[in-house]
Amino acid sequence: LYIFYSMFGFQRTADSIWQAADQRARGFLIGATAGGTTLNGEGLQHQDRHSLLMAQSNPGVEAYDPSFAYELAVIVEHALERMFTDRHVPGGEDVIYYLTVYNEPMPQPAMPAHVTDQDVIDGLYRFRPAAGDATAAAHILASGTIVCEALRAQELLAEDWDVAVDVWSAPGWNRLLRDGTAAESWNRTNPGAEPRVPLVTRILEPGRDRPFVAVSDWMRATPFQIADFVPGPFAALGTDGFGRSGTREELRRFHRIDAASVAYCVLAELVKLGEKDPSVLGEAIDRYGLDFDRIPFFGQPGGADDVTR
């Protein structure tokens, strides 16, 4: 068993991690300063927005982007069980767990009573349901430290726009893609068997009539991995582009993953569905000071502001 802490993620260690997996290593990799906006002020070198995608390329790595301390505890316990008991594989399983953690202080809640260990291990569960009814409804899926922005966006949408939002913790983007592609492969090659339903589809199916907005401190492609399995309209937000100096608040506004930008994206999706009048978008831009002309996507004027399906 080994535990390795890195402040550079997979960008400087990926080949060594591949070699370790090829040699049947077991242990933990801790991404100690993960994310595109949490280690601000040092620019490109220390703003890691792509390690989760690189981890997906390694079949010996199980990657998670935990939102809360209790998720880390559950995942570590499950990892040790896989590595050092016979429950899953006789003699234990050769697997490396890549766990992203952040250097941002944030209050750590207790594990909600409605959440089980298996919910966390699966990688997607409803953390905070919407409070009460509203004229429109949506879902926000978030991981890592950006779950705090999602929770604030939930409040903004309820207070300012009468929109009820369920906030989901999604620590397992990578795991959810692997589960979905495995289900697809099974269904394709076993036409006479009972079809398998991807975890994402099964978990989110009850809310399919509402839009889903996913956000993290990683490239948009990270949450967009699950797009094929989401049973409704889906948009993804992330931190594409080069690193840059600034406060966390400035960087999150720049990448459009702060609470106000997430709320705006939800409103935009509701407008597309005819659930909100288009005028709310201009009102939201004014209310929250969202200067999209000054802060263009990817640094290119006229670029798209999100990735949608």
Write up what this structure looks like.
There is one protein chain. By secondary structure, the protein is of the alpha/beta class. The protein contains eleven helices and ten strands. Strands 5-7-6-8-9-10 form a six-stranded mixed beta sheet. The chain has a four-stranded parallel beta sheet with strand order 1-2-4-3. The chain is globular. Residues 296-308 have low confidence and may be disordered.
Keywords:
about 300 residues
How is this structure best summarized?
This protein is of the alpha/beta class and 309 residues long. The protein is 36% helix and 15% strand. It has a 6-stranded mixed sheet with strand order 5-7-6-8-9-10. A 4-stranded parallel sheet has the order 1-2-4-3.
Annotate the secondary structure layout.
Elements lengths: L1 E5 L7 H9 L4 E5 L19 H6 L4 E4 L4 H16 L11 E5 L16 H6 L2 E4 L7 E7 L4 H15 L1 E7 L3 H17 L9 H6 L7 E4 L5 H4 L9 E4 L10 H8 L3 H14 L6 H10 L18 E2 L1
Parallel strand pairs: 1-2, 2-4, 3-4, 6-7, 6-8, 8-9
Antiparallel strand pairs: 5-7, 9-10
Helix pairs in contact: 5-10, 10-11
Taking the sheet with the most strands, its summary is:
6 strands, mixed
Percent of residues in beta strands: 15-25%
Individual helix count: 11
Computed over alpha carbons, the radius of gyration is 19 Å
The structure class reads alpha/beta
The strand count comes to 10
N- to C-terminal distance? 41 Å
Share of residues in helices:
25-40%
Task: Give the uncertain stretches in residue-range form.
Answer: 296-308
Overall pLDDT score: 89
User: Going across the major beta sheet, what is the strand order?
Assistant: 5-7-6-8-9-10
Spell out the helices and strands N to C: EHEHEHEHEEHEHHEHEHHHE
Shape: globular
